[in-house]
Design brief:
CATH architecture of the largest domain: 3-Layer(aba) Sandwich
Protein name: DUF58 domain-containing protein
Pfam families: DUF58
Shape: elongated
InterPro entries: DUF58, vWFA_dom_sf
Number of helices: 10
Organism: Hymenobacter saemangeumensis
Number of domains: 2
Structural class: alpha/beta
Strand order of the largest sheet: 6-5-4-7-8-11
Strand content: 25-35%
Largest sheet: 6 strands, mixed
CATH superfamily of the largest domain: von Willebrand factor, type A domain
Length: 291
């Protein structure tokens, strides 16, 4: 798999998405079921109660046996991609990429995969300009729309409140919601939104982004840390504080994972320095379990 730095260095989100996803497409099985669709798949013997319109009468005339023509029917889904574009997503990892950079690559690759599966895919960006929403569509022009929205997304401010996100939960629409966020929230805004989306859409895949340098706390000596959303700063000795910081971080991550799974979310932590393959694998796994 290509590293996120190489993909980002392509400076072409469409190409990066295709390159990131192409390795999966060879081994991924399209989600299909047998039924009365358009593409012929196989014959099976007639059983009482079967639809007589699907009988192959020519075959019956030749063989004196009754067989039904079965087809393969696509089981497409609606995929709702959700991007957290709050200011904390501007955190920069040691590889030079921000969380927002990584999220752009990841969501673009997932959109590409979704289209290859025949799914209708949409995107919601929650950030400084409020809600930017592209409803799920399956037409060929949807990917360029999504790529443009991701490329022009900027991270600033805090995660919007319920008033901004209300249109997303206003009506029931069966979908797989894929949220990419660092889960930096003030008063459970992200968790509340995902809980409501789960109620109206059904499935939530939560991909929790963490920078490698915040996981390892790789800073050295005296440093000043600034909260990207509140602007507050803190001076400390990184080497001295590392053990306590890492202990508290692991405790918070454990509690966060348990709370998310308790709510029924399919929760996974992602390291922004690692390739996108794990996230794409989890996406395909979840997608195929609900097809």
């Amino acid at each position: 798999m290509l590293s996120p730095e190489i993909l980002h260095g392509l400076r072409n989100l469409s190409l990066a998405a295709r390159r990131a996803a192409e390795g999966f497409l060879h081994g991924a099985h399209a989600s299909r079921r047998h039924g009365a669709g358009m593409e012929f798949s196989q014959y099976r013997p007639y059983q009482p109660g079967d639809d007589l319109r699907r009988l192959d009468w020519r075959l019956a005339a030749r063989s004196d046996r009754y067989y039904l023509r079965e087809s393969e029917v696509d089981t497409s889904l609606s995929i709702h991609l959700l991007l957290d574009a709050s200011a904390s997503m501007n955190h920069r990892d040691d590889n030079g990429l921000t969380k927002l950079d990584y999220a752009r690559l990841l969501l673009a690759a997932l959109a590409y995969l979704a289209q290859q599966q025949g799914d209708a895919v949409g995107l919601s960006i929650l950030g400084p300009a409020g809600l930017r929403h592209l409803p799920p569509r399956a037409d060929t022009r949807q990917l360029p729309r999504l790529y443009h929205a991701l490329e022009t997304a900027e991270a600033a401010g805090g995660f919007p409140g319920v008033e901004t996100s209300a249109p997303l939960t206003a009506r029931r629409q069966r979908a797989l919601t894929v949220c990419v966020s660092d889960l930096y929230e003030k008063e459970s805004e992200i968790t509340t939104l995902l809980t409501k989306l789960q109620a109206v859409s059904g499935e939530v895949l939560l991909l929790h982004l963490l920078a490698d340098n915040e996981l390892r706390f790789s800073y050295r000596g005296a440093v000043t840390l600034r909260d990207l959303e509140t602007g507050r700063s803190l001076q400390l000795d990184a080497d001295e504080q590392r053990p306590a910081y890492q202990a508290r971080l692991q405790s918070w991550l454990g509690e966060t994972a348990k709370a998310a799974r308790r709510r029924g979310f399919d929760y996974h932590q992602l390291n922004c320095s690692e390739p996108l393959d794990r996230a794409m694998r989890e996406f395909l796994r979840r997608r195929n379990t609900i097809s």
